[in-house]
Amino acid sequence: MTKQTFIKGTLILIVASMITRFLGFINRIVVARLMGEEGIGLYMMALPTLFLVYTLSQFGLPIAISKRVAEAEAHGDILKIKRILIISLTITGTLSIFFTIGLIAAAPIVAKTFLTDERTLLPILAISPMVMISAISSVIRGYFQGRQNMKPQSYAQVIEQIVRISCVALLVKLFLPLGVEYAAAGAMISVIIGEFCSLLFMLHMFKLKKRMKVRSKFFKYLRSGKETLNDLMSIALPNTGSRLVGSFSNFLEPILVSQSLAIAGVATVAATKQYGELTGYALPLLFLPTFITHSLAVALVPNISEADARNNKKLIHYRIHQAIRISFASGAIATIVLSLYSVPILNYMYGSSDASRFLVLMAPFFLLLYVQYPLSATLQAMDYAKAAMWNSIISTGVKFVILIVLATNEQFGIMGAAIAMVVGIVLGTVLHLATLIKVISFRIPWLDIVKMIALLVLTWWIGNELKNYFPGYETQLSLFILLLICLVAIYFVLLLLFRFITRDEIGQLPGFKRFR
User: Fold this and answer.
1) How far apart are CA 234 and CA 445, in angstroms?
2) 276 with 249, same domain?
3) Cα dihedral sign, 232-12-428-437
């Protein structure tokens, strides 16, 4: 099996994620224009329920599998890798069946009582088969990550998006005459079809690349896998706690927002529309750079796990610095662009700029979220998943308190939810960083902090000045694209000048060996 370096593996994931994000935005634009803000609101209100059940069925195993497979790989223990796969597939398969049945049974109560909109029932029921498909995919994905081979899951991501985007317009148009809730259900079905095709590809790649027969002596390995089970649970349980907090947060968020806006005097239809603007229009743009930082985090777990197994502390610190530096570099440009050009971006994408207020408020703080991903991955890779879980619990609890206080106030309304999200992000990142400082004496050099501030200030000034050189960019798409190309080109030069991208890192990329 081809094992990639940290930079090469990360690059493969980034390219795949970039393609899938681009296709995902096309998918989102198609869905938004077909269903409108109300349809997007129903779609986004139903998704958190799936994510909550999805997290419960995975049981935090993907990261645990990645870490333990990487450790076993470092010691050449193929039999342990087999035990890890057998136990993981047994756990996720059993849980996914149980929670799929539970989701279908609880769907009417969730839609009517918690989400306060009965039209979310159909989308929730439509997405329920996704639970088992995604649970099995997560085990295979964790295995490939642990082996530090990022290609299979990267190809699978692209396949999933291509299939989804091929189906979504057809299904939404097919069901839209029946009502907006049927259209939202059609969009959910396209997600399932895409994920199923992705799983088939992953299974095919696993069959080609595996070094053991999983079905051979399956029950023997299952009965003798108590130690392996304990090893997995030591990571999986606290990681489940962290993911459960996030998924439960996403599940509760639309409920609390809708209930709080109702207290503030906002009608149900208006509340759904406002929530659609925040979560369907603004948040996808704010989360766009996370395809880079998430890729870093995925590649970081097996890399740091292997270094930790070999007690290479110097490499661990270097990888954390490297991940923070690249995460900040990728997020800073997005922060500037979304803050300065929120109105034209939203108009060009969705034909409406109503969500620009959310982008202007939230973009500067989301820069900390981009850094948070590798920090969380590092804690999990070094067996500090429990600390990461508590950090998530604290930041989420504070976020909910602020959300309820502000969103129930008619002067804040939906902006109270946006402010609460920002506070949760800032607090979560600070807590993760404080934990790393405590447990491994990690430090960010003052010079790096000064360079980060200087990069932000210079890029902001340049981006603001470019507005004067491209009059009409708000109404002419070609001018706006040219403006962005100029800004990104200048930004890349600044990254090199400030050494956010080093010569050695460029030399690790395919075709750039001469830069080493």
Assistant:
1) 32
2) yes
3) positive
CA distance 401 to 361: 19
Give dist(CA 313, CA 156) in Å, integer: 34
Angle between helices 313-340 and 356-381 (to 10 degrees): 170
Co-location of 450 and 437 in the same domain: no
- Is 50 exceeded by the pLDDT of residue 280? yes
Q: In the prediction, which pLDDT does 125 show?
A: 87
* CA–CA separation, 418 and 403 (whole Å): 8
Q: Both 406 and 492 in a single domain? A: no
Residue (of 214, 213, 78, 209) closest to 136 by Cα position? 214
Distance CA 375, CA 369 (A): 10
* Phi and psi angles of residue 410, each rounded to the nearest 5 degrees, phi first: -60, -20
Do residues 488 and 430 share a domain?
Answer: no
Q: How many domains does the chain have?
A: 2
pLDDT recorded at residue 384: 84
CA distance 469 to 234: 57
Residue type, 222: L
Q: What angle do CA 189, 131, 43 make, to 5 degrees?
A: 45
Distance CA 143, CA 148 (A): 9
Query: How many Cβ atoms are within 10 Å of 509's Cβ, its own excluded?
Result: 12
What pLDDT sits at residue 512? 47
State the burial class of residue 415 (Cβ atoms within 10 Å of its Cβ: 0-12, 13-18, 19+).
middle
Q: Is residue 516 part of a domain?
A: no
Q: Residue 482 domain-assigned?
A: yes
Instruction: Indicate whether this model's pTM tops 0.85.
Output: no
What's residue 223's pLDDT? 60
Residues 437 and 449 in one domain: no
Say whether both 401 and 472 belong to one domain.
no
- For residue 469, the enclosing domain spans 445-503
13 and 140 inside one domain: yes
Asked if 244 and 119 sit in the same domain, the reply is yes
